[in-house]
Amino acid sequence: MRSLVAVLAAAAIASTAQAAAPAKPAAAAKPAGAAQPLKIANFDARDPDKMIALLTALGAQAKVTGRESGQVFLAVVTPGGEFGAQMIGCDGGGKACHAIALFSTYEKKGATLAQINDFNRSQLACRGILTPDGRPSVMYSTLVNLRMTADETRQHIGVWQGCLTGFSEFTTDPIDFLSRPHG
Fold first, then answer.
1. Got the DSSP string for 90-138?
2. DSSP-derived 3-state class of residue 143
3. Distance between CA atoms of 55 and 46, rounded to whole angstroms?
């Protein structure tokens, strides 16, 4: 898949992503304030194993699919679909990562580069791209640190779910999506 270097350059992190199957929003996470606090022993958002524990607590299945040059790749399956996760800037043991990127590639072609750019201007956290073969892809990334709690990390998963919902609507009908106000 297309390099994420440009997308993560502001965070001074370079990487290469692997595409995932198209995703729908996961039904597991609940809005902040409505959910019970997560109890994950010794939670560390920088640790791929703890990220897998968090996703499992939210009703998803996740597993490590590869490790390469300070990156750990995860495949995530939820009741609503599948997506990929990439832990970036990890130490030699694949822990103490600096960021996570969540991403999904859709099969439906049709959105133009101009429409993808308009989608990006309408969004605060989500970033859409076109893959080299013309498929739309969406990504959400955030820096992670030792101070982040499981509940704070769950909020990032909730933002990602919003990205998936919005991008699904966008890929279904870019013109309709872009003609509506987005606040």
1. --TTS-S-SEEEEEEE-S-----HHHHHHHHHH-SS-EEEE-TTS-EEE
2. strand
3. 14
Residue 131, judged by CB atoms within 10 A of its CB (0-12, 13-18, 19+), counts as middle
pLDDT in tens for each of the 183 residues of the chain?
A: 223 322 222 222 222 233 333 444 444 444 445 567 788 889 999 999 999 999 999 999 999 999 999 999 999 998 888 999 999 999 999 999 999 999 999 998 889 999 999 999 999 899 999 999 999 999 999 999 999 999 999 999 999 999 999 999 999 999 999 999 876
Instruction: Record the pTM.
Output: 0.77
